[in-house]
Design the sequence.
């Protein structure tokens, strides 16, 4: 019974590691980490627009780690455009921080795959101690979840403290200046948070695998030997 219980936990941990890997890959390739509304400040100042007219100058923007798009509203109707973060726009952003976010997620992908491999190994074989046992799986999941957490924290810092949305909105805008009215994190950002949560679940599963169940021993009946048994 304990062996089946541990194999089941390692199988669940394998599935969770695979789901975490998929979530990170999907999040990195999706262009909607942030969505927001941008105001064309230059257009508003030119026509001295009042509150009812501001709607004509409020556009939209969305972006991820590699690409995005925006709708410019400068009083003459909306103009849609798409952009890529690499190779030119990243030079106008906080380049080091943006590259660190991508690097953290790539490292998290690697550790998620390592965790997946060792979970499968422990599920089908008697686990080695140290790196290949439950303690090792905990190590890989802790590292993977930690790097995802670093990536998420760094992205939040870039948005809140380094004005990432405003920099992207004003990239190559020589005439108009845009101001960010509101911005919020989209589902793809929370997918990364869910990936870190999946690794936390794996840590809980590994802790449960250390539970030792009492072994069920069958009671042996004592055999009494009589004199008649010896004679015959």
Sequence:
């Amino acid at each position: 019974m304990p062996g089946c219980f541990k194999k089941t936990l390692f199988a669940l941990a394998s599935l969770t590691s695979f789901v975490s890997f998929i979530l990170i890959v999907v999040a990195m390739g999706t262009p909607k980490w942030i969505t927001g509304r941008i105001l064309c400040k230059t257009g508003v100042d030119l026509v001295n627009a009042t509150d009812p007219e501001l709607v004509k100058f409020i556009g939209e923007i969305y972006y991820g780690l590699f690409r995005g798009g925006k709708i410019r509203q400068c009083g003459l109707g909306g103009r849609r455009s798409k952009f890529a973060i690499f190779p030119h726009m990243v030079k106008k952003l906080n380049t080091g921080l943006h590259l660190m976010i991508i690097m953290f997620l790539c490292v998290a992908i690697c550790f998620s795959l390592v965790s997946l491999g060792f979970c499968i190994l422990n599920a089908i074989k008697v686990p080695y101690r140290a790196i290949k046992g439950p303690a090792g799986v905990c190590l890989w999941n802790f590292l993977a979840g930690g790097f995802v957490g670093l990536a998420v924290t760094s992205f939040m810092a870039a948005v809140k403290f380094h004005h990432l949305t405003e920099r992207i909105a004003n990239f190559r805008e020589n005439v108009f200046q845009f101001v960010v009215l509101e911005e919020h994190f989209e589902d793809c950002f929370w997918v990364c948070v869910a990936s870190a949560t999946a690794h936390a679940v794996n840590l809980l599963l590994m802790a449960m695998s250390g539970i030792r169940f009492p072994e069920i021993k069958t009671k042996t009946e004592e055999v009494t030997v009589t004199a008649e048994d010896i004679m015959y």
